[in-house]
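dumping this here before i forget
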Amino acid sequence: MNSEEKIRSAFANKDWQEIKVTDSWQIFKIMAEFVDGFEKLSKIGPCVSIFGSARTAETNPYYQIAVECGRLLTERGYGVITGGGPGIMEAGNKGAHMNGGKSVGLNIDLPFEQFHNKYIEPSRLLEFDYFFVRKVMFMKYSQGFIVLPGGMGTMDELFEALTLIQTGKIARFPIVLVGSAYWGGLVDWLKNTMLEKEHNIHAEDLNLFRLVDTAEEAAEHIFRFYDKYVLKPNF
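structure:
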């Protein structure tokens, strides 16, 4: 009987002691993912994460923008971290790889979509079972986020970062949304509804990110930020 079957059996039989033991052993697997991630990423140096949809085709203009972002970042000595999969993630790694820069992938085991792309250096490919461990790696070792059009996962990473910066749980770092046609409606809602109508955020919170349309603008925002601040882990 595998672990999943044991958990189901324990619930069915109300064997709470079995569930408790299973949870306790799971801690060691979670710990192992943290240790592996910290050891590998702490040695890589300054990196910027590029986020976006796994479903974006190579012919999509946003794919090409992500490639260019990867290229521009590595020209200035930054590595590129992505979620390791296809689409925008592949494009970011591709730009870094083709320019001879550091190309890092934080891959996650999913039932669909996710398989690591070929532009990640094998020694810099990390595999995760837990989304929350993977998100810690992005937050701790990214000196900036460049966020291209994506789905639920992209939104999750974006708002996780904004929340942690807003609440002072991590140091501030630059967050760039690329594509005013895609993100403009969300930004308008944040301003008109969340801020002005419902007063659920402060006006200063809208300054936690920058909306741009080109790879050059995105990279330049990262570079200008670190003309004033020291590069270091975020917490």
